[in-house]
Automatic annotation (TrEMBL):
A GO molecular-function descriptor: ATP binding
Lineage: superkingdom: Bacteria
CDD domains: ABC_6TM_exporter_like
Protein name: ABC transporter ATP-binding protein/permease
Organism: Streptomyces albipurpureus
ABC transporter domain location: 358-594
SMART domains xrefs: AAA
Membrane-spanning intervals of the chain: 37-56, 76-98, 153-173, 179-196, 265-286
Amino acid sequence: MHPPEPLTWTPPAKDDDQPPAQVRRILRLFRPYRGRLGVVGLLVGAASLVSVASPFMLREILDTAIPEGRTGLLTLLALGMIVAAVMTSVFGVLQTLISTTVGQRVMHDLRTAVYSQLQQMPLAFFTRTRTGEVQSRIANDIGGMQATVTSTATSLVSNLTAVIATVVAMLALDWRLTIVTLLLLPVFIAISRRVGRERKRITTQRQKQMAAMAATVTESLSVSGILLGRTMGRADSLTDSFAKESERLVDLEVRSSMAGRWRMSIIGIVMAAMPAVIYWAAGFVLQGGGPTISIGTLVAFVSLQQGLFRPAVSLLSTGVDMQTSLALFQRIFEYLDLPVDITEPAKPVRLDKIRGEVRFDGVTFAYDRNQAAPTLDNLDVTVPAGGSLAVVGSTGSGKSTLSYLVPRLYDVTAGRVTLDGIDVRDLDFDTLARAVGVVSQETYLFHASVGDNLRFAKPDATDSEIEAAARAAQIHEHIASLPDGYNTLVGERGYRFSGGEKQRLAIARTILRDPPVLILDEATSALDTRTERAVQQAIDALSAGRTTITIAHRLSTVRDADEIVVLESGRIAERGSHDELLGLDGRYTALVRRDAEAAAPIHRGARATAPATP
């Protein structure tokens, strides 16, 4: 029986008012690439200086070269403006190339970090979390921040440099017109901050909805989901449910797209109107008897002003995008900040030769601290190297939980589990993975070829080794009969193979791994009697010479075990050999009788359908 756990995983509560800390954490992601970003900064600075030079050359053309008829100067200035445009474009292409490369590397680092973190999470996390939710975090959330990550650093540096250079140039042309221009910037900043907060809130809701829809797709469009939906006549209902999820996403996408759109359009209107304001202000200055402003200066100033507003608004837009991306980063950081309960010790023990003695020494385990009673309570069991232990009991007695403690799918709450006298918590993960093999009732096969699925246990296995493992598992003849043999695709979760065939493939995979300790977690409980016999033969071949712990549902599979332990509510109710336990006429005997009664109708049905003997 699988442990009772909460149905869904809920992320820890976060304080949304901590953007500075989040921004610092985001900036740390770029730290390994600061050299490349330094080059980008140089390119940006050079591009800004070159672009600012163009208005000054334009002023000289209008005020000096054309009025005075100096064609040589006119040609030189015109060529200078062309060269400036070319250099700005070249610098822009180079900075885009470098910044995009850096951004994609950061995205790669994030994806890898999240995947690595999830690989370390305890089994309980995945039993509480929908698969689609996990996929959405890696695909949708990290993918959603791509534009920001790949362009934000460059945009910030280039636009900030452009704004500073342009303001200095405008002051050099006319400080009074510059003040008129800068008076509007605080209004722009206030508008963009408000828009950013609104988009961040909507983005958080949108990403949650995308995760919910991804989970629905993953569950309902898997092979199992399709089979269940069609056989239950719920295909239309599932479609309606998906349509409702999609409809909610449509609403959030529209709201996200339109958030602050009217406010930002005000900025665009003001930008378009500013040249007229500058011309009007210049006219008032002249009429008021102020210093004369030349036509060249006025045109150059308006050109600079437009050059100021473009990067200024881009900076504001970057701020809005960063507010939006903070919501996505927060969802990613939630995964990166998950506590890893099962870790390697600072100085792990590595065993080169493993005998295979397993000992449960005062083992107590609870899935939740708030449990009224622990799932396992103070168990003491020893399985000598090469010996066999069978664990039986009613549903919920803690049989599977006991087996999960050996490969450290969970860690004990109290006591310890040892391998060759060493606490499994002190072993390095590689030693533990080499030492313990698990064959469970729920066999998982990748959507790959038979050969690739077997090689997952031993990537460097030769064809002859794979065939030998398949023969030992009683599955080679079937594989050889397939048109593509070991190159046959097994289909999603192995749906091209029957339950017994999948079990034998899993056994062949474990044989290839060759672990000295074997955990058999109800490996034949879901099979019919005929298939069970074939799988049992493969298990017998696999168990030979190994320390074997069998979690049994059908007691016929454990009669020959060296020791049988009967669990009841997490405690050992009885222990001994098959004959010794039958002599006690207790819990084990009752379980044997129950098994016999359950099997009797099957045998009677088989006799009823058998042909008459002449």
